[in-house]
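Quick one, probably user error.
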């Protein structure tokens, strides 16, 4: 029975040695994009590839340094387990909002209670969506940091408006808020 392996382009174009590419291909025989876990035992790989154990360890280190193999842990405190990288990090099309877990939103709702959607204020979800859609957002920036900074600024503006209305302070705060969220 013949088994064909699709080799991703980022592996072929990677700046690694040809032997490391062959090791990645050998590891891909027991892996798939849905199940990237592999047990890269240097003794077994050296027998399969006809290379020394020391060379296999060097090649594994080369793949890890290149980001094509990710160390995940140990089995029986003896054998290292890895994840094979089938899709390069730059191409992963995961939505930035998917990285924001419910725990992150719970934390933000506690830290920014004024963003509750009451009395004309925006709610937390609206603020997060607005921050992610901002043309000023650097696409390579961590979305958590960007959104958190945006939430701090929004909460500060709404707090200033609240205290300005409560203590009849000058209307500058309210005007600035209107310009921001008009």
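Nope, works fine. Designed sequence:
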């Amino acid at each position: 029975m013949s088994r064909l392996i699709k080799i991703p382009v980022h592996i072929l174009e990677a700046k690694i040695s040809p032997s490391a590419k062959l090791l990645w291909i050998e590891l891909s025989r027991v892996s798939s994009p849905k199940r990237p876990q592999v047990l890269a035992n240097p003794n077994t790989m050296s027998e399969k590839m006809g290379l020394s154990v020391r060379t296999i360890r060097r090649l594994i280190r080369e793949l890890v340094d290149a980001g094509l193999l990710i160390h995940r842990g140990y089995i029986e405190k003896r054998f290292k387990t890895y994840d094979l990288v089938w899709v390069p990090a730059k191409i992963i099309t995961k939505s930035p909002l998917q990285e924001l877990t419910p725990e992150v939103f719970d934390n933000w709702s506690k830290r920014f209670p004024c963003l509750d959607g009451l009395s004309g204020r925006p709610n937390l979800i609206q603020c997060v969506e607005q921050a992610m859609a901002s043309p000023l957002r650097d696409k390579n920036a961590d979305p958590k940091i960007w959104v958190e900074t945006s939430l701090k600024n929004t909460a500060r503006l709404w707090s200033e408006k609240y205290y300005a209305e409560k203590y009849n302070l000058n209307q500058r705060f309210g005007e600035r808020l209107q310009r921001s969220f008009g």
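Residues 9-84 form a domain with the Arc Repressor Mutant, subunit A fold (CATH 1.10.10.10).
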